[in-house]
Amino acid sequence: MLTLTCPCCGVTAEETEFAPGGEAHLKRFGPGSSDDDFEGYLFARKNPKGVHFERWRHAYGCGKWFLAARDTNTLEVFATYKAQTSEPPADVIAKIKAKRPDWEGYK
Amino acid sequence: MSTRLSKGGRLIDRAKPLAFTFNGKPMRGFAGDTLASALLGGGQVMVGRSFKYHRPRGIVASGAEEPNALVGLGRNARFEPDQRTTTTELFEGAETTSQNHWPSLEFDIGEINNTFYKFLPAGFYYKTFMAPRAAWKHLFEPVIRKSAGLGGVPKEADPDRYEQVYAHCDVLVVGGGVAGLAAALKEGRAGKRVWLIEQTPNWGGRTPVDGGQIDGHDAQDWIDSALAELSSMENVTMRTRLMAAGLHDHGYVIGYENLADTTPGDGRPRHRLWRIRAGHTITATGAIERPLAFAGNDVPGVMLASAVRDYIVNWAVSPGDRTVIVTNNDDAYRTALAILDAGLTVSAVIDAREETHGALPQAVKARGVRVLEGRGIAKVQGRKHVTGVEICAQAGEGGAVETIACDCVAMSGGWSPVVHLWSHCGGKLTWDDDRAMFRPDAARPPTGADGSAMATVVGAANGDLTLPETMGGLGIGAVSEDEAPLAQVWMMPAGAPDALRFKSFLDYQNDVKVSDVQLAAREGYESVEHTKRYTTLGMATDQGKLSNINGLAVLSNALGQPIPATGTTTFRPPYTPISLGAVTAEAKGELFQPLRRTPMQSWHEAKGAHWEPVGHWRRPYCYPRSGETHRNAVNREISNTRKNVGLLDASTLGKIVVKGPDAGKFLDMLYTNMMSTLPVGKCRYGLMCNENGFLMDDGVVARLSEDTWLCHTTSGGADRIHGWMEDWLQCEWWDWKVYVANLTEQFAQIAVVGPKARDLLERLGGMDVSKETLPFMQWTEGKLGTFDARIFRISFSGELSYEIAVPASQGLALWETLMAEGEALGVMPYGTEALHVMRAEKGFIMIGDETDGTVIPQDLGLNWAISKKKTDYLGKRAQERSHMTDPNRWKLVGLETLDGSVIPDGSHAPAEGFNANGQRKTQGRVTSTYYSPTIGKGIAMGLVLNGPDRMGEEIEFTGESDAMIKVRIVDPVFYDKDGEKQNV
Amino acid sequence: MSDAVSALQGETHEGFATVAETGLVGMITIRCDLGSKGLAKALKAEGLPVPDARRIETVEGRSIAWMSPDELLLICAHDEAPALTERLSTALSGEHALVVNVSDARAMFTIRGEKADQVVMKLSPADIATLPTGEIRRSRTAQVAAAFWRSDSDTISLVSFRSVAGYVMGLLEVSAREGSELF
To answer: Which value does ipTM take for this structure?
Structure first.
C-alpha cells in the first residue's frame, strides 16, 4: 500500500486516504472532435511498466485532486504535483530523468 | 521416552504448575512452557497424524517452523484447529486434542493410506478418480473430504473480540534475538523512533541456548543489559508476542499480536493486528534449521537438533533417553554437548562428512561420544516412536552397516536464513554455496517510496550464522566456537533406492516425499512454482519453512542443474498464520460497515419500518402495520397518499450547492439541459451524463440566487456527484470561478404528498404555500410554524407535493409535528416502495432501474431534457457516436400485461431467431415492474426495440419458469397523463 | 428554532478514555481565496485570524480551521451559526466566496483522558503521536471521513458527518474499552 504526499495540503498519508483517478494529463475532446480523437480520449490509456503519470484525490483529506509521477514497477514516487497543469512540470521531468536516465520522456 | 528433567529450564517457573489435558488425559506443565514442551515433558511423543497418509507424527521443531504438532485447542465456540504447539503458550485448563485421525490417535483407520502410498503419489488427484464420472461426486469426493482436511471447524460464532491499530516509526526492528537487540540499540541511541518486536514471549533468541560471549560478557548478561538500556529509552517501543506477518509496499508492515490466547474469555481483544508504517525495517529474524531426508525421518522422536537442545535448555525437557545425532555440519554437535550436560546419553553422532576436525566435534569426541564419519541413516526403526536407526555409508545405497538403538534422533541439515520479510516486497536472494543457503542480496533490496532500500537484514537472517559474524556485522565483538564447513547433503544415503525415498519426507505437513518431487521432475515439471503446486510441497500451513530448500535441492538434483538455476518459490505473507478475527477486527455486527442514519431514523425504527438499503443508508421500504404484509402496506401507503396525504423521509437525497460567477456555465456543462437560464426561485429537472454519454444521475435543480444553484441528486449519487463536480472544477476548468459544497446532511427533507398536502402545511402556518404564491416547480423559504424551512413545489408522484428542507437538527421535530397535525387529514408515512410505484405510475424514470450504465437519455424519451442550443455538455460528443444514434437502440415504453399480472423483474422479450452463440434473440427487457393499486393491475416500463413506434402492439415477455406473459406496449405514463393533480 | 437535537444527544461512554458526543455545535464552511484581503477583513471583524495550512486557531470559544487550500471551517455555538453565516456572507459579497452553515451536517466528539491518542490509533492511519497541538488532521476513522485535533492537553476533538455519528460512536466505544489499552 502506497504512501503519497498531497501537494495541496502537505500531508503524507497512506493509500487508503486517497482515491485513484487513472491516467493524468488527458486532453478532453468534445463536440466537433474527430472519432479518432474522441475514442482516444475516452478509451486509450497508457499502461507502462515504469514511469507513469496519474491522478489521485486526497479524498479523506483536503479533497483536492493532484497528480503523481510514479514507477508502476518499483512503486517509486518521483513527485506529486498540482493538478492544474496540462503536462508534467519541468522540475518533475528533471527529477524522473535523474532517476531514470533511460526514460524516453513524456509522451 | 521424553520426560521432564529434575532441574534446569531457563524459561519455566516450577513454582507455577499448570494443568491441561491432551485428548482428555490430564497433564501438567509449568508457566513458561509451550504446549509442545509440556507435551514432551509429560512423555507425549506422538501428538498427531499426518494429513495424507495418517502416519504417526511427533514434535519436530521448537518454534514457528513446526510442521507436525498441530492440535485443536479449546472447546465449542472457542475451539480452534491447527494450533501450533511449539508456539502456543501453555495455560491453566488448556484443552488440547490431536488431529487427522479416526477413531483415535493410537488407532487410525486412515493409516491404510500409508500402506497404499504407491497409489497416492504427487498429483494423484489429477490422475485418478477420473471415471466413472458420477463416482466423483457420490463416492470419491465424500471419502476424500472425510479423510482430508486439517483439523475441525468450530460450529459457533467466535465470541472473542479483535482489533487493529496503526503505528508509525522511523525504524522497525523485527526479531528480539541478539541481532535485533543490537540493531535496536544502535537506532535507539541515534534518537530514532524505534519499534522492536519479537514473535515469542522471550527476548534473546536462541543465543542463550547456543552460548557464546558478546562484548566480553556472557551472552545472557549482555542481553539483560541491552534490554535494560532499551527499556529506558523513551523513543524505543518494545513488544513481545508480536509477529511481523508481512512487509509490503512503502514500508507497510503487518504485525500480529497475541494478547489473550492464554486467558480465554477475559474480555480483552484476543489478537491485535498492527498496521505499522516504518521508515525503514531491519529484519533480524534468525535462521531455521533444515531437516535431513532419510527414510522414516518423520517417525515421532526424530527432531531438529536445535529443537532437542532447546527443549533441554529452555524447558528442562529431555526428548529421549538415548539420542542419535545425524548431521552434515558442526552446529549439531552443540546438541550433543547440551544432552551430555543434562546427564543424558548421546548414542552416536552420524556425520555425513568424511572428516570432522572442528572444535565442536572435537569437544564431543573428547567426552567419549562415538562419532561415525561418512555415514548416514538408512532407515529409522519404529512406527509410533523411534526405536533405533540403521546406519549406512552416506555414499552408498543404504546397505545397513550397523543398527543403533535409540528413542530420539536429532537431525541437522544446516540452516536457512529467514528471508521472508526481505522477499515479500521484492528483495532478492543470492545462493551461498559454501553454506548451502539462500541469503539476502544487499545489492537488490526491496525499495520504498523514494526508490531506496526500505529494509536491511542483520544476523542469522542475513546468513551470518555464527555469533561473531552476527555481532560483528553490527560492530560488536563476540566469541563462539569455530565451525568447519558443512557438506551439502539433501538425502541420505546419496544413492537411496525407491524403497527409502518413498519414506523420506520433505514436507511433513503435506506428506510430500523425495520420491514425489523426483516424480514431478520426471513428468516434466521444471519450474519450482509448478512443482510446488503439483506436489503441494510447501503449501501447508507452515508454508514450507522446513521443506522448501530441501525440496528445491532435490528438484535441482533431479533436473541436473544447480540450485540457484531452479530458484525459490515466492515468499508470501503472512509469515505464520494469522486469525481471520484480527483481519476483521471491529468491522463486524453493527460496525461491519457504516450505517447512515437520517435525523428521523429513530422514528422509523420505532414504527417498525421494513428497510431497504440504499448505499449506506437504510430507508423505510414500508411501514407495515400489525398483521399486514409488506405488499399490503405498500398498497395502503400508495392509496392513502393519492387520496389524503403521505410523508416521505427524503433526507437522503443529495443536496449540493453550486455558487460563483461561472456557476451557470458550469451547470450547463454538467446537465444535458440549460440551467443557466433557470430563473431565481424556480426549479428544473435535469439529467447528468458521463463522458460516455450514459445517464448517470438526475434530480431537480433550484436556483437560489443570481449566482447560486442547489442541485438535488439521487440518494446513492450525492457523494459521487459532488466528487464529479470537484473533479471537473479542479482538473479541467480550474480557471472557472465556482465553489461547490455538499449540504446533503445539513438538511432533513420531508416530502409532503397528496391532495391534502397543502391543508397540512397550512395547519403549521407561517408561510403562504398557495398555488399563486408557490406554484409548481418553484421554491420559497421562511418559517413554517416554528421551523426554518425551504419548501420546493416538486413532485415525484404526480400528486400535489411539497418537499420541505429544514436543518437536520429540526428534522425529527418537523416530522413529528406533521404527523400530529396531519392526523385529522389521514396522514401516513410512506416508504421507498410506494415512492417507486407512484413514480412508475407516472412514467418517471429511476436511476439504476431504467439506467444501468449503458442507457442514454435519448433511449428514455428524455429528449425534451436535452438542450439543442448548447454547443457542449458532458456526454454530448459521445451521444453523437454512430452507435448512440442508431435508430435500433431499445427505447423506453410502458408495458401493460393483458391479464393484469405483474411481469417478473428482469424479464426479457424474446425475438425470432438465434444469435451467433445459439442464444435466443431478444427485443426488449423490463426495467421497472410493479403492481399498481391505483390502476389495479401490473404495470411496467421497459426498453423495447423500436418501442415508441409500436404502441398497442402485443409482445411476449418471459414469465416465471417457462410461461410467457402477453404484454401490450403502451405509453409509460399510466396515471394522470396531463399532470393535473400535481399542478393544483 | 424548534426542538433542535444533535445526532446522538450527548451520548457518552467510559473506558480507558471517555468518549462523548458533544451535542449541538455550530459549523460554517467558508470557501474562498484564503489569501484574499476581503477574507482576512471579514474574519478580523469577527475576531478571527485566517489560519495557516492545516492549523486550527481558537479564539474566545470559537475555532477556525484550515480544511483545504480554499476552504475554512469555523466552529462556534450552534445558535450563533445562522447569523454568523449571514454576516460573513455579506462581508464577503465582494469576493468569489461561498459561506454555508453546515452545523447540522456534522457530529462532534471528544476523546478525553491520558490515553486518548490510543483510541485514535485504532481508527485512523494518521500518525496521531506526531500531531502537534493546533493542527487539524483530516483523515478517516475506520470506513468514514473524520477530522481531529488536540483541543486541550488530554482531549482530542473529532468531527464526522452526522449520518454516521452512530457508527463513529460505536467505533470510539469499542476502541476505548477497558483492557484494550495499547501501552
So the answer is: 0.98
